[in-house]
Design brief:
Layout: H1 2-7, H2 10-31, H3 37-60, H4 64-70, H5 81-91, H6 94-105, H7 113-136, H8 166-181, H9 188-212, H10 216-222
Helix pairs in contact: 2-3, 2-6, 3-7, 5-9, 7-8, 8-9
Length: about 230
């Protein structure tokens, strides 16, 4: 109960309203198209994905939500990630804004149903992989830091046997598929820039873990790839 009380601060409640209501509905709020089926499906997936992932993670690691909610306030957070973490958060919203504007003005012809179904599957799989990583890794913080206060150690189970940063993998593919599902070619412009930030953040985080987290270098010798199996 104490952990929940610390987590549910007024600031956190406002953030939850933004994450669970405002952002998922942005394409429809901007376009005014409340009969837009794909946008409703996207909103529902986002809301369910957030709630289910956090509920499962908190059930396994009761302190993880408190860690994520206060991560930006931690003194040992890496200075470069104080820039990249909010950049990613803001960057994930911009494609939704552009998709809404695109729908409003009809800039993009709709993708075929087959393309959108594939995109939907990719988004679902991306969310599922991200959830798996969050549940498996007690140290899945909102910002890069070596969590000595929480006895930080290398996690090598679950999806971490396949790639070193499965949370970013899920995020990468979900971001990439979203413009297709929401019928917006123009949304690919900020999305590609956002994916560049994901790759940069992955690289810097991996370098930090190798330098500062005991056992991580040995882990990299067994799990060779950061994001893309067989490539990088």
């Amino acid at each position: 109960m104490k952990t929940q009380a610390k987590f549910l601060t007024p600031k956190t409640v406002i953030q939850l309203v933004i994450v669970l209501v405002v952002i998922p509905l942005l394409p429809m709020l901007i376009s005014g198209s409340w009969g837009w089926g794909e946008a409703w499906a996207y909103a529902i997936l986002n809301i369910l994905g957030f709630v289910v992932s956090r509920a499962l993670a908190a059930r396994r690691h009761p302190d993880i939500l408190a860690e994520r909610s206060r991560s930006m306030e931690m003194q040992d957070a890496k200075s470069w990630d104080r820039v990249l973490a909010p950049t990613m958060a803001l960057g994930s919203v911009i494609p939704l804004i552009i998709a809404g504007v695109d729908k409003l003005f009809g800039w993009t012809n709709p993708f075929t149903l087959n393309f959108k179904l594939v995109a939907l599957v990719v988004i679902i799989l991306g969310y599922a992989l991200g959830t798996w990583a969050l549940v498996e890794n007690r140290f899945f913080s909102g910002i890069v830091r070596i969590q000595t206060d929480r006895e930080h150690h290398v996690v090598t189970t679950g999806p971490y046997r396949l790639v070193r940063h499965p949370g970013y993998v899920g995020t990468f593919w979900a971001y990439l598929a979203t413009p297709i599902f929401l019928d917006s070619v123009w949304a690919f412009i900020p999305t590609l820039l956002l994916l560049g930030v994901v790759i940069l953040r992955t690289s810097l985080e991996d370098r930090t873990l190798q330098a500062e987290l005991p056992g991580y270098v040995e882990y990299t010798q067994k799990t060779r790839f950061r994001l893309f199996p067989g490539i990088w």
